[in-house]
Amino acid sequence: MEFIIILIKSAIIGALVGVGAGAGAARMFHAPTVQGMGAFRTLGELNACAGDATSHFSFGLGFFFNAWASSVGAGAFTQDVDHRIIPNWAAAALLRKGNKPEETLHNPKKMAIAGGIIGIIGIIVVVFLNSTASAIPESLQAIAVKVLVPAANLLINPVMPVIFWLAALDAGKRSGIWGTIFGGLAHIIMGNAVPGVVLGILIGKGVDDGGWTKITKTLLTAVILLFALSAFFRGFDINLIKSFHLDVPNWLINIHEMIGQEVK
């Protein structure tokens, strides 16, 4: 009886989350005219898949295993369920017949209610994650985590960064160059190249479409500032100096200590 209750609640929650996440992701393509719902990476990752159904499905699949491992081992969903899995699988379902992204992925109504696609995907994902998590004994959950987490980590890094880097190279010369530069920096600073590659694709495609306009220059400046601040707050500058076997300047140590960072 308890298992049936879990299935029913999961189906209801999955349908609501699926419709909301699908429509919200589609509305992000129309900002700032309308209010979207989703993280910046959701928009960037949807764009990076370039309207290819296989790319959307494989991207969502990579994070599905991670979410599954978290659900089974920790009993909680990761944010990947509504930010990455559902939007990308919904896009894959809508684009499977070669439809244009502008007519499907960018359409909130179609993304939310076209044949109940999003709702069904949300139901399937949530029901599967919750039902398997509740059905697996605690002794087996520990084993599942030891198997699934390493597999999911391999998909997220290095498999997914390589896929996005290849997508950047395929998107054009500028996207390939900027994707390689920022992808490499993101891997060194953040430990994962995907955010940098996605930002590189956005900059490259922006320059290809409109040239070096005020918008593209502002975007490039913002990205450089983002990487600089990220490197600073992660202590990357300290580690970089130490890697050359040089003494860290006292003024730099003092700045880090002023913001509450401990410099070893």
Set down the secondary structure blueprint.
Blueprint: H1 2-27, H2 40-48, H3 53-74, H4 80-94, H5 108-113, H6 117-135, H7 138-170, H8 173-190, H9 194-210, H10 214-233, H11 236-243, H12 250-258
Counted by DSSP, the helix tally is 12
Structural class: mainly alpha
Helix content: over 70%
Order of helices and strands: HHHHHHHHHHHH
What is the residue-averaged pLDDT? Answer: 80
Shape: globular
For the record, give the distance between the C-alpha atoms at the N and C termini, rounded to a whole number: 55 Å
Count of extended strands? 0
Q: Uncertain segments of ≥5 residues (pLDDT<50)?
A: none
Tell me the fraction of residues in β-strands, as a range: under 5%
Short note summarizing the structure:
With 264 residues, the chain is mainly α. The protein is 77% helix and 0% strand.
Description:
- The protein has twelve helices and no strands.
- It has 264 residues and is mostly helical.
- Helix 1 (2-27) packs antiparallel against helix 6, helix 7 (138-170) packs parallel to helix 9 (194-210) and helix 8 packs antiparallel against helix 9.
- The protein is globular and about 65 Å long.
Keywords for this entry:
264 residues, mainly alpha, 77% helix, single chain
